[in-house]
Amino acid sequence: IPAMSLEVARLCKTSMESARVGTDEDKLQNGRDFYKFMFTHFPDLRVYFKGAEKFTADDVQKSERFEKQGQRLLLAVHVLAETYANQEVFKAYVRETINRHRVYKMDPSLWLAFFTVFTMYLETKTKLDQATKNAWAEMGKVFNDEAQVHLKNSGLPHT
Which part of the chain is the Globin domain (predicted)? Predict the structure, then answer.
């Protein structure tokens, strides 16, 4: 395992301590907070959430859908951070994630953009140093590279 992969994994996992998953209210709130952040700062992405295209942060806060979706999203990002040091498993999870999202016909550029949005969200939860921001950017690059290859190999739009 390259030392860089281990360091990226370590930094990302450490920063995820501020965005934990679980059934306690504070952990449920972490997931809601991601969508509140995204819907407020990137309202153009709401089009990918059928029935929630006009949702505000208050709507997200009261939504059982986004409570559950927030947990799913955080779980997925935790899995990415936990598996990053094992690139074979990490890339398999990337492909699986792409497969699960096919039905949404997402712009392929959003896979890389997600990591920018997620890092900005994390900064609302904890202070990120430059090394941690770089680690998230590196993970996003590796994720996106695998995502685009998989999209291309699947005959889907890619960058």
Answer: 12-152
> What residue has token string 């990415």?
80
**Is pTM beyond 0.85 here?**
yes
Ramachandran class of 56: left when φ > 0, alpha when ψ lies in -120 to 50, beta otherwise: beta
Mark the binding-site residues, compressed into ranges: 101
C-alpha–C-alpha distance, residues 83 and 78, integer Å? 9
The whole-angstrom distance between residue 47's C-alpha and the CA centroid of its chain comes to: 17
CA proximity to 81, closest of 20, 148, 149: 20
Can you state the angle between helices 25-41 and 110-125, rounded to 10 degrees? 120
Would you mind telling me the total number of residues written for the chain in this entry? 159
**Rounded distance, CA 21 to CA 19, Å?**
7
Are 119 and 12 in contact by the 8 Å Cβ rule? The answer is no
Q: Which residue has the tokens 């096919």?
A: 102
Determine contact, residues 15/132, Cβ cutoff 8 Å.
yes
pLDDT in tens, 88-98: 999 999 999 99
Binding residues for heme are 101
